[in-house]
Write a structure and sequence with these properties.
With 453 residues, the chain is mostly helical. The chain has 20 helices and 7 strands. A 3-stranded antiparallel sheet has the order 5-7-6. The chain has a two-stranded antiparallel sheet with strand order 1-2. A two-stranded antiparallel sheet has the order 3-4. The radius of gyration is 28 Å and the shape is elongated.
Amino acid sequence: MRIPRTPPKTAELLNDVARDKGAEFLLEIERLAPEPKKYLHWDKLRHLAPPNGLTHREWWLGLKMRRFPSFRAIPLCDKEQRPFSFTLHDPIPEYLHDIDLRGGGSIGAPDPLTNPDFKNRYLLRSLIEEAITSSQLEGAATTRLVAKEMLRVGRPPRNLHEQMILNNFLTMQEIGKIREQPLSPELVCHLHRIVTTDTLDDPADAGRLRSRERSIAVEDDYGNVFHRPPPAGELPARLEAMSEFANAKSPEPFVHPVVRSIVLHFWLGYDHPFVDGNGRTARALFYWSMLHYGYWFCEFISISEIIRKAPSKYERAFLYTETDENDLTYFLIHQLETIRRAMDTVYKYVEHKTKEIRDLERRSVAIASLNHRQQAIISHALRHPHHCYSIESHRKSHGVVYQTARVDLLNLVERKFLESTKVGREYEFVSPADLGDRLKMRDAGAPSSVGLR
């Protein structure tokens, strides 16, 4: 990936245009320089035809003058102590509204995600997905099938790549536990320690800030340097400032929680406080912040899954911000689009699984052969894996005698649609997680190999 072309400095453009065309032209330039539909960087804009007879430099100056009044500075400064800032340019307000509706409240959430049994199954799926793709972004090379098998059965990792994935999985689980805690430099180091356990050349670097003796740079395989982070001596103070920002102690003006979470992601990536694992830690902090501020839906999304499909866009969003006078708007827009696409992925998955269940209920010969009481249980069981039923609960639900309820449930066990287990003197009947597959096997006439437990 190449480094984007650095835009002309605004102050230099003002002097040049004022000298060449006069102060009156500067008063007109905003009107003559309409904002494109997308929030373009100079690297893209310089290839487009300028409007209204302007030069590219004049068009760029007009855009900067349009954007400048709405910029809001944050406490993050670059190596020369110049602040980063952002603007709520379109479509940011629309994106934030959408994420508020779908990510923070219960209105509009897919019904299955309010179902505890389905919720737990999907949460495990999403944690595994984020663990795998976040590691793959940082170079982990293993198949998804092997990685999922490792996490699901709990076997020890066999190599460095699997260790990275396991670490990410444990980090995402830890974030769910500490979401209520305020951020602190110690907590950041704690997360980094989990992220990098048994993956660093020096194990002592896990959870430890890089030292003054360790020079570090973000570069590609050919030695092209994209970013040099601030000096190691500044890191303790910068982490303190980042924590205050994350905990909404600064700045005084309101910053939307989603914006704050994205800025936190960028901040740690910019400071690069560790010798390795900064990208994974930065994404972990984003998740911590979203959950900390009540965006519970974010537990179910994988931003790394979306980023991995176009990693150059992710990297370019960092570079656009750095090269254009610390304008964070580029990174904000990219990450808001990423979050929305990740949320869409969840909705599509849930919609697919719901349709799959409905189709199975409608078409299954095995279900059609059951009586209406048994069909009701199977319909419920498909949506509530691992749910427990009792003879008494079934009897009360359908107003039948004990013996009828008992026969219904035992028949479902015999067909291997439920599993039975004894608790004290009573039997419990449990819906298996693979009930849909069992029904399909029965419809196909294949014998089931799953026994009772």
